[in-house]
Design brief:
266 residues, alpha+beta, Beta-Lactamase, two-stranded antiparallel sheet, 50% helix
Length: 266
């Protein structure tokens, strides 16, 4: 016996193909307009909301996209008709939800009894929105990186002025850069919102007060610091801590540490 009972042949006709094509278009998010050489719409499908006039109005490009973009789009279509060279363009359209961006791919169709211009319209608003956000983030990152490099340059210059030897310079410079890294970690963890004073103080003390059995007691106002203030105050705390660890109370072996933070209205 053959396998005819285990399989079925599928016959397709023009209507079935059209239905399947419409489903594919909906899945892809693309719509289309097929126009004659006079730009009368012959066929259209899956047009985004707000672009429906392209299917019903003669040369509806200006009604949908405005005079400037509509005229430009008509000129592109006529150019494709004359040169048979496909082109792509992007047009922004104001909508209730914001600005929508459409990519329109235009090409000449002259085959299978069809002569005209096919425009495939794809909503790329989300892609362009992500690109704009990424560009904004990159600009912000560049700005913050320049600020950070300026601080490092200042640290290097100040340390060099005070250095009596290369070893002295390296020791001081490494300590200050490490302090800067501690502060930067807090800023980064907060998504560049800054840091709280208590957390900054504990982080700066961590290398010089590692004994968890005798925690640091911090009292008063836990001020929230801007990213730039976090870096600079962190460096100031580092200098105070290093002095105490070298010549002051920490070097003397104290077994408790209390920090009081208060507001000065002067």
């Amino acid at each position: 016996m053959g396998n005819a009972g285990n399989s079925a042949s599928i016959k397709t006709d023009a209507n079935t193909s059209k239905v399947l094509m419409e489903l594919v278009l909906k899945k892809s998010g693309a719509g289309y307009v097929y126009q004659s050489d006079d730009l009368d719409t012959v066929l259209s499908g899956n047009l985004p909301e707000g672009l429906q006039l392209l299917a019903t109005e003669h040369q509806g490009e200006e009604s949908v996209f405005g005079a400037e973009d509509g005229t430009r789009l008509v000129a592109l279509k006529r150019s494709v008709t004359c040169t048979n060279t496909p082109v792509s363009t992007e047009i922004d359209v104001a909508a209730a939800t914001g600005v929508l961006t459409y990519r329109i791919d235009i090409e000449r169709i002259d085959a299978a009894g069809m002569t005209g211009t096919l425009s495939v319209i794809t909503d790329i608003s989300e892609t362009r929105h992500r690109e704009r956000i990424l560009k904004t983030l990159l600009r912000e990152l560049s700005h913050r990186s320049k600020n950070l490099l300026a601080i490092i340059q200042g640290i290097a210059t100040q340390t060099a002025r005070q250095a009596l030897s290369l070893d002295y310079f390296l020791t001081k410079f490494r300590g200050r850069i490490q302090s800067l890294a501690y502060s930067q970690d807090l800023v980064t963890d907060s998504s560049w919102r800054g840091a709280y004073l208590f957390a900054l103080t504990e982080r700066q003390f961590s290398a010089y007060w590692p004994d968890s059995e005798t925690p640091i007691s911090i009292n008063g106002i836990n001020a929230h610091l801007s990213p730039n203030a976090t870096l600079h105050i962190g460096l100031a705390l580092h200098e105070l801590i290093v002095n105490s660890a070298s010549y002051g109370a920490i070097s003397a072996g104290i077994n408790s540490l209390t920090i009081d933070c208060f507001r000065d209205d002067l």
